[in-house]
Hints:
about 210 residues, Peroxisomal Thiolase, Chain A, domain 1, eight-stranded mixed beta sheet
Amino acid sequence: xxxxxxxxxxxxxxxxHTLVKNQxxxxxxxxxxxxxxxxxxxxxxxxxxYPKFYKMDNLSKLGWLTAEVLLKDSFDKARYQPNQTGVILxxxxxxxxxxxxYFESVADIPSPALFVYTLPNIVIGEICIRHGFKGENAFYxxxxxxxxxxxxxxxxxxxxxxxxxxxxxxxxxxxxxxxAGLFLIEKEQKENSLDFSAINLNCLLExxxx
Length: 210
């Protein structure tokens, strides 16, 4: 078990048509009635400009948006080499949302554009391509968010100096049910950093103030 102390430099939570960063609500859209419409609403609200976004599946859109908000004004990429930054994620439904959409397309003409996203770790690839991360990454399937497991995995990578910074958390979509919670973990304590612990990860993901 790790005895080193690491820190949550930033957090970004998306669920129920609401986006929260560092325990502060940044955006709510109560008008949209489905997940894709909300993801597009967030993209447009923050003025993001990344044409590839429109081609992504819903899981990748959710993870990409959550990571984009997480890192904005919170992460100094110049402090790290690309192989020093990584991503550790988990969810309950794997790529089932994209799998179902692809299966529906098979009845007519199978869609290669959908087939590309029938692996859950594609969302990690989208985040890493966008931000130039080339370090260790992994995607785990769990019935529910296991904060102790995530803390253990990330701490090991930091302890062994395989990574110096890591995005970790939960990104899950199935039809119009979605939830994402991403956390930027670094070795250096910054102003307003939180201790990297399972208790704090769970509190942030559930919207409880720390």
